[in-house]
Model the fold of this input.
Amino acid sequence: MALLWLDDVRAADLETVGGKGASLGELTSAGLPVPPGFVVTAGTYREFIEESGIDEDLFAAMEIDSEDSKALAGAQERAHELIMGTPMPEEVREEILEAYRSVGGDEEAFVAVRSSATAEDLPDASFAGQQETFLNVTEKDLLERVKECWASLFSQRAIYYRNQKGFPHHEVDIAVVVQQMVDAEKSGVMFTSHPSTGEPRAIIESAWGLGEAVVSGSVSPDNYVVDRKTGEVVDVTVADKKVMHVKDEETGETVEVDVPDERREERVLSDEEIAALIEVGEQVEEHYETPQDVEWAIVDGEIYMLQSRPITTISDDDSGIEEAAGEAVANGGQSLEEAGSGDVLLRGLGASPGVVSGSVRIVTKLDQLDKVSDGDIIVTEMTMPDMVPAMKRAAGIVTDEGGMTSHAAIVSRELGVPAVVGCSSATRELEDDQIVTIDGDKGTIREGRESKDVEEREPVEEVRPKTPVKPMTATEVKVNVSIPEAAERAAATGADGVGLLRIEHMVLSLGMTPERYIRENGERAYIDEIVEGVRTVAEEFYPRPVRVRTLDAPTDEFRQLPGGDDEPKEHNPMLGYRGIRRSLDKPDVFAHELEAFRRLFDMGYDNVEIMFPLVNDAEDVYRVKKLMREAGIDPDKQDWGVMIETPASALGIRELAEAGIDFASFGTNDLTQYTLAVDRNNENVADRFDELHPAVLELIGSTIETCRELGVKTSICGQAGSKPKMVQFLVNEGVTSISANIDAVRDVQHEVKRVEQKLVLDSVR
Done:
């Protein structure tokens, strides 16, 4: 027989029906919603080329240098000529047409014709999108479309990819899936788990009409991120969807049309549809026992599965990102080790991880690929399938259109080439030979070749955990960082993020007061210093959160610096003009700090969180929110919070929470001295300084309880967080995170784990 029905196909039939056919047959057998159809088997293709005698010429044409773009084009052309110029056997023709009529009912029925290679969608390699797919095919074109699929086994990118993966051309066959056409109203792609990390965060991309617009990259789709643990839609990006693919009612052909103006920026999927897709996706992942890349469509409220393949880009650790950056450097790009802080020119979706610099090469036609040299940045409207050889040479990829789940983005990740997609206007705003830095993690394109001197750093081995695996705890264990130079040592602890990064140490290192520095060097220089300092730490920890405290230096420290003559003289600076009081009193200087945060967010550092010190009441919070908005920071979209350092803030936590904070962090040094009226630096009373005093613990405990009730995160970043007894108290109270000094992180991790295990045991005994 020349074909098999999907109802009779299983995963074990890979060699007969190819990767796509085997997947669709398996999904059908699992009871998932798959349109009916059949597969023209790989054996039918093999018999076609062998019995017609074109096989020897076909494989001889593949003996080329796959790095030579012209040779690749010639090989593709010769294969197409041989296959399309050879007639299909009559008995095969009749069997295919008879099956088609069974699927559609008449010769005008519409079907999808999809290639399904036998070396496709394997666990360790994705040949995504390398062969042809045809939509809205009727009987008169069906047989030619089947042959077009056979010929597409020898497309330029397929030839190149097989050479790179070591698949001999003569060992790869191709089947063709013929399915009832789903005239989709909305469609797209879903990763059932994160495509880089494998964490249970589903990513769905969707657009209007047929799904080819999404997978081909011709439209920038909506992007939805779903936490599968909670079912919460944690991020929604509604794109400007300019075009859609639909069936032309007169000709029946698939055409690209403009999306009506009122729907271009309309959200495609409702929360209910997202939940339904997640449910189907989880069924698929459970069936295959591995994360899946799923193509789907919705028509009349019904979900249809069009394809499912294993995700091949998940890394067990961070090595994939390191290798991607390293390979780009080897090709002439510049790695993160040399990165600085250029202005953001464009933003898109980070589709393939890594940070590299290089010269822009605008590619609008395939015959321009030869101008792409090692280490260049390809900038194109969308990453066309035949660009793979040039993509391998490039340091990075930037596109106007497309999403992170497009086939081209998948190939970029497999090649280890950083990519940013969906930038809208990169081909118009960037120029040939322009030097840029692209960040495939955060989705930014920055001006210039970023560089900075690599400073001498302390050895990191001494703070690495002695055990190979960090203790897994429900309570996060973070680390305190005082200076950016300590970022590498801090990250080596395996901490879950930075619970406290102090800005004042960056400012004090300038050697003069902020006002004096701004007068002598300008506002931009001051902002740059803050950006670079915070960025050093945020980059080292990305995507783990980095909580940055705004300026909190007492007047006596500023008074010692040039420009400090104007500082007020205070009997007790710790009770005086510092923290948020100073910031609100000098909004012009504070605005520069906020501008630094705005720039960091624009650069893609969404792991940065802002923390305001010495807040007393909700009035402080409302004033801060107003200044944030004036600086261009949306307090509803960024994580920010306050320090709990005074009894007033602890007792007024409900009002602070209602004012909109995302977290509250205990500064136990100040909270203790303000509660007990004890200056820990005063030798006469220092012995009375006790962070574990019942009054201090009562304030901390009641604050945690209220925050848990109101959904506000809690943490501790004071020195007491490193003490075992405080750790025991905090974990029992339900604190969200504990931030410890660098040398104490490992011990705190194990102490937290011990306390949590005891809580679990106590609950079941």
Notes: The two ends are 64 Å apart (CA to CA). The chain has four domains: 3-180, 186-310, 344-447, 476-764. Residues 186-310 form a domain with the D-amino Acid Aminotransferase; Chain A, domain 1 fold (CATH 3.30.470.20). Residues 293 and 412 are 15 Å apart (CA to CA).
